[in-house]
Amino acid sequence: MDIRSVTSAASGYTAARPATKVDPDFNGPSAGDQLKSSFAQFANTLRATETTAVQSMTSSSDPHALVQALAQTELAVETAVTVRNKVVEAYQEILRMPV
Fold first, then answer.
1. Radius of gyration (Cα) for the chain, nearest Å?
2. CB-based contact 53:68 (threshold 8 Å)
3. pLDDT by residue (tens digit) across 54-78?
4. Among 43, 40, 68, 41, CA closest to 53
5. Nearby residues of 69 by Cβ (< 8 Å), 6 or more positions away
6. Does the predicted TM-score (pTM) go above 0.90?
């Protein structure tokens, strides 16, 4: 084994190491906070659609608003199902890993 390749590998590792460290100055939202926010937005979308549907049934709302609210809810549900499917696929992939 050549000493230059070992030195090159060590210097490459040293240069790449800071990229794997957590930035202590990062003040952004955590993954848990982002997930909570997503759930809250999903629930708010469903509540708004429900309110619009009730208003539409009592004829105090525009039918176009109901169609728009239903389309937003459909998109939110499809997104939630897609995320759930990806989580299930990842879990199944972990289960298939040899130990």
1. 25
2. no
3. 888 887 778 888 899 999 999 999 9
4. 68
5. 48, 49, 52, 53
6. no
